[in-house]
Each structure stands twice: as structure tokens, then as C-alpha cells.
Amino acid sequence: FFFQAEDGIRDVERSRGLGDVYKRQAHGNDPYEEKAYYEKWGDYLREYSVLADKKSRNDTPIIQQDLEILTPKIPADILQNYLGTRKRNTNLHLKAIDYLHEGIISYLALTLDDTAPYGLAAIDRRTLEAKLDTLSLWDKADIYPGADELPSVLLARYAIYKQKLQKPPTVFFSYNSVCGPQAELLYEDRPLGEVLKAHRRATGLQEASTWEQSDFVVAVNSPGRKQGEAFEQPNYEDVETAQRHLPDFIDQIKNFLKAGKKVIILDVAYANGCDHRFIQLLIKSVDISQLSGISGWNTAGNSIGSGLAIGVAGLFLKDEKAKTEVLFTRFIDDWMYQADIRQLVYVKLGKPSVCLLYTSDAADDTPCVDLGWRRIIN
How many CB atoms lie within 10 A of CB 190? Predict the structure, then answer.
């Protein structure tokens, strides 16, 4: 009923929903995760991307001068490949919108993989949004930060659709701080509260005004100011600051559980792994088997979409064993491996490309994994 394509549309079969990912704005110079030329030219390409976007918004002489100085520093064939890939990607997504307009698909989710406030991805986003505006298709389309979680989001959306409910299920977001919704994220182009809103809409959920009225609660462990990387915790400058209150947050979770409410833990204080201090306090205070799920494994977008999908599954899934397996699998992967073991291995191996430390099924067929982490453990 749906399909996902990393680099565009692979067929045109009539579909219930389509999720498509458009090209990331790379944050690093990793030749394992990006094209090989990023190792040498990644910084220049990122700077070009930001300047091109700023020029499209406000074309000042200074920005034009900076672009003219930068462009000759990038080999022409590399810049052409970089821009050509983006153009192809955007054209495919424009075609996906055509399919939506023609009724070939009934819902379209276009997600921004590893994005930022400025860059070519922002130009692409505005182009796609403009077409959706013109065709008045926003009632069956979404554009927002995410990628790997998209199949789970589409499955959750389809599960809600199949239930033929009179009204959509509702979710209540509970934060560890009043600053939570405004927290800055590492791999998204907007604050945490806006990313949550976008994923909620894509999943097919409505937001409840109170926790008592909700079908389930999402307890959001946010950074105090700005998200950090899990393998660099503790981060006292941006994450573990006075702007958040973990003891009170855990009290809230205990009260939700005591009232019989389904609770999903969404841990996005750090990217690529859970928050050690929060999880340790949680385990000491709460019977974690009472939780309905946890998500904190990758970017904020990846974790949010996965967590909401787990929440939806918990509403309809009757297999208690399966629910428990999902809960503890995520604790083992998102906290014990991503935030702990992975960090130890990263240091032990001399801080190699983090791509070599991925073990997710989604990356199993990529050379960087096959030649890296799996070879190491073998």
C-alpha cells in the first residue's frame, strides 16, 4: 500500500500512501556515508549550499561576492554532480506530487533527511511547498524533517485508516522543560515542538489539550538548549542545563502510569542515543515494563516518528509479548548500545567514521557497514 524511495520513485503502481526522502544536506565529510568527494570537498559544498540559499532569500552584494570567491575552489565536475543529484531528486518529488494530484496515491510524505535552517534542501523544500500550495494538496501531503522512520509512520497512518474511527486517536506531549518545544536540534531545520507537530500530523494523530483526554502520552526528554551527540555526553553546555528539571519530569511519568495512561518515552536530548542520566533516573524510579515504548535511536526526526508509530501500534496491537519485545529491544538498542557500547567502541577504535558503528537493518547492505563494524565483530 505504500513504498519508500531514497532517491525517488521506483514504480507508479496505485498506492495508498507514498513516503519519499529527499537528498540530505550532509553535516560531515564522511566518505563512507556520503559520496567519496565529501572527504575533501564537503566543507566547501556545505558553504556553497548555505550561500546559495541565502542568495535566494536576500541577494546582497556581500553574499554574491562570497559565492564568486567560493565557487572556483570547488572542481566543476564535483559541483555539477552535486547540483545535478539535487535537481534529479527534486524533479522526482515534483513528479510524486503530480501522482498525488492525479489520484494515483492518496497521501504523500516528503521528508528532509539531515537538514538545516539554511541550504539547498531549504530551496528544494520551498519549491515543493509552492507546488502543493498551487494544487491545494495539503490535506493529503506533508513535508517535514525525517527519513529512516518514514515506513513506520506510514504503517501507523494506515493502521489508523483501517480502523475506520469516528475521530483520530489523540496524543498529549509532556516535556521536561517549558523550553522544550523551542529546543534547537542538530539535524533538523526547525525547533523540537515544530518537528513533533509535523510528525503527529503525518502519523494521523491529533493533539489532546490535556493528558486525561489523550489516548496516549508522549513524555519528551528534550535538551536544555540545544541537542547534543550521544557519544559526547555528558554535555553540560547545551543539553544538561538548568533549563530542564528531570526529577519533576519523572514525577510526571510516574503519575501518568499510576493513572493507567499509556506512556511513550521520546528521548531526544541527544542524537544517536539516549540520555544516560535520564534513563538511569527513570529505571530507579519507574517499573519500565509498564511503559508502552521508548525511542531515542537516531536524529530527532527518526526518533519522533518511530516513537509515535509505537504509540499507535500500542492502541491496536493485542499481542502483549510483541509489545514487550519492542519495548526492551528499543531499550537495548537506543540506550545500551547507541549511547553506551557504541561510545566505548568508538573511542577504542580511535574514533573512526561513526558509519562503521551502525548495525541497523536499514544499513545492512551498504559497504560501509559490511566492511566496518560487522568485520570487526567477526
Answer: 16
Q: What is the pLDDT of residue 357?
A: 52
In angstroms, rounded to a whole number, what is the distance separating the alpha carbons of residues 205 and 163?
Answer: 13
Question: Three-state DSSP class for 17?
Answer: strand
CA distances from 275 to 124, 133, 263, 267, 341 (A): 33, 39, 18, 7, 13
Q: How far apart are CA 270 and CA 156, in angstroms?
A: 25
Q: What is the pLDDT of residues 301-322, one digit of tens each?
A: 999 999 999 999 999 989 999 9
**Could you give the CA distance from residue 246 to residue 90 in angstroms, rounded to a whole number?**
42
Note the pLDDT tens digit of each residue in 174-228.
Answer: 999 999 999 999 999 999 999 999 999 999 999 999 999 999 999 999 999 999 9
Which residues make beta-bridge pairs with 173? 218
Q: Is the dihedral of CA 94, 96, 102, 106 positive or negative?
A: negative
The answer to pTM > 0.70 is yes
CA-to-CA dists, residue 191 to 117, 138, 188, 273, angstroms: 10, 21, 8, 19
d(CA 23, CA 26): 9
Segments in 103-187 forming alpha helices (H) = 120-135, 150-163
Positive or negative: CA dihedral 149, 151, 156, 157: positive
Q: How confident is the model at residue 371 (pLDDT cuts 50, 70, 90)?
A: very low
Say yes or no to pLDDT of 133 above 60. Answer: yes
How far is Cα 56 from Cα 23, in angstroms, rounded to an integer? 19
What is the distance of C-alpha 280 from the center of its chain?
Answer: 24
Q: How far is CA 192 from CA 16, 199, 273, 313, 314, in A?
A: 29, 11, 16, 23, 24
Residue 203's CB is within 10 A of a number of other CB atoms, namely 28
| Peptide linkage before 145 cis (omega within 30 of 0) | no
User: What is the structure's pLDDT at 274?
Assistant: 96
